[in-house]
Design a protein that fits this description.
single chain, alpha+beta, about 25% helix
Protein backbone atom coordinates (compact mmCIF):
# COMPACT_ATOMS: atom_id res chain seq x y z
CA UNK A 1 0.00 0.00 0.00
CA UNK A 2 2.90 2.38 0.64
CA UNK A 3 4.15 2.58 -2.93
CA UNK A 4 0.76 3.48 -4.51
CA UNK A 5 0.21 6.12 -1.82
CA UNK A 6 3.69 7.56 -2.30
CA UNK A 7 3.15 7.67 -6.07
CA UNK A 8 -0.21 9.42 -5.66
CA UNK A 9 1.26 12.02 -3.29
CA UNK A 10 4.13 12.65 -5.70
CA UNK A 11 1.76 13.09 -8.66
CA UNK A 12 -0.50 15.49 -6.79
CA UNK A 13 2.41 17.51 -5.40
CA UNK A 14 3.82 18.00 -8.90
CA UNK A 15 0.49 19.27 -10.32
CA UNK A 16 0.42 22.91 -11.46
CA UNK A 17 -0.25 25.34 -8.62
CA UNK A 18 0.07 22.72 -5.87
CA UNK A 19 2.47 23.67 -3.10
CA UNK A 20 1.79 20.80 -0.70
CA UNK A 21 -0.29 17.72 0.00
CA UNK A 22 -1.13 15.79 3.17
CA UNK A 23 -2.84 12.42 3.60
CA UNK A 24 -4.14 11.15 6.96
CA UNK A 25 -6.10 8.17 8.26
CA UNK A 26 -9.41 8.38 10.14
CA UNK A 27 -7.63 8.85 13.48
CA UNK A 28 -5.50 11.76 12.27
CA UNK A 29 -2.30 9.78 11.73
CA UNK A 30 -0.29 11.33 8.91
CA UNK A 31 0.17 8.75 6.14
CA UNK A 32 2.26 11.01 3.94
CA UNK A 33 3.14 14.62 3.28
CA UNK A 34 4.78 16.58 0.46
CA UNK A 35 5.79 20.21 -0.04
CA UNK A 36 4.68 22.92 2.36
CA UNK A 37 2.08 20.74 4.10
CA UNK A 38 2.85 20.06 7.76
CA UNK A 39 2.40 16.56 9.18
CA UNK A 40 1.60 18.13 12.55
CA UNK A 41 -1.68 19.47 11.17
CA UNK A 42 -3.04 16.05 10.12
CA UNK A 43 -5.21 15.69 13.24
CA UNK A 44 -6.71 19.14 12.74
CA UNK A 45 -7.42 18.46 9.06
CA UNK A 46 -9.20 15.18 9.88
CA UNK A 47 -11.20 16.77 12.71
CA UNK A 48 -12.29 19.60 10.42
CA UNK A 49 -13.42 17.15 7.73
CA UNK A 50 -15.41 15.17 10.31
CA UNK A 51 -17.13 18.26 11.72
CA UNK A 52 -18.06 19.68 8.32
CA UNK A 53 -19.50 16.29 7.27
CA UNK A 54 -21.86 16.55 10.28
CA UNK A 55 -23.55 19.61 8.74
CA UNK A 56 -25.47 17.37 6.33
CA UNK A 57 -25.66 13.86 7.77
CA UNK A 58 -26.25 11.16 5.17
CA UNK A 59 -24.75 13.25 2.35
CA UNK A 60 -21.51 12.51 0.55
CA UNK A 61 -18.43 13.86 2.28
CA UNK A 62 -17.98 17.49 1.20
CA UNK A 63 -14.95 19.12 -0.34
CA UNK A 64 -13.85 21.93 1.96
CA UNK A 65 -12.11 25.01 0.59
CA UNK A 66 -10.17 27.21 3.00
CA UNK A 67 -8.93 30.34 1.32
CA UNK A 68 -6.50 32.99 2.48
CA UNK A 69 -4.81 35.90 0.73
CA UNK A 70 -1.89 33.81 -0.50
CA UNK A 71 -3.07 30.22 -0.52
CA UNK A 72 -5.93 27.74 -0.64
CA UNK A 73 -6.40 24.41 1.08
CA UNK A 74 -8.82 21.83 -0.31
CA UNK A 75 -9.81 19.03 2.08
CA UNK A 76 -11.75 15.89 1.24
CA UNK A 77 -12.45 12.71 3.20
CA UNK A 78 -13.27 9.41 1.50
CA UNK A 79 -13.35 5.87 2.91
CA UNK A 80 -11.58 6.88 6.12
CA UNK A 81 -8.74 8.73 4.39
CA UNK A 82 -8.51 12.52 4.39
CA UNK A 83 -6.55 14.43 1.77
CA UNK A 84 -5.53 18.10 2.01
CA UNK A 85 -4.13 19.86 -1.06
CA UNK A 86 -2.45 23.24 -0.62
CA UNK A 87 -2.50 25.54 -3.64
CA UNK A 88 -1.67 29.04 -4.73
CA UNK A 89 -4.85 30.94 -5.63
CA UNK A 90 -5.64 31.10 -9.32
CA UNK A 91 -4.94 34.40 -10.96
CA UNK A 92 -7.31 35.85 -13.53
Amino acid sequence: MEKPLEKCLDEISHSPGVSGVLCADHKGLCLGVRGKANSGSSGTVVALAERVAMLEPGSLDPVILLEGDNSQCLIHRNNGVTLAVYKSPETS
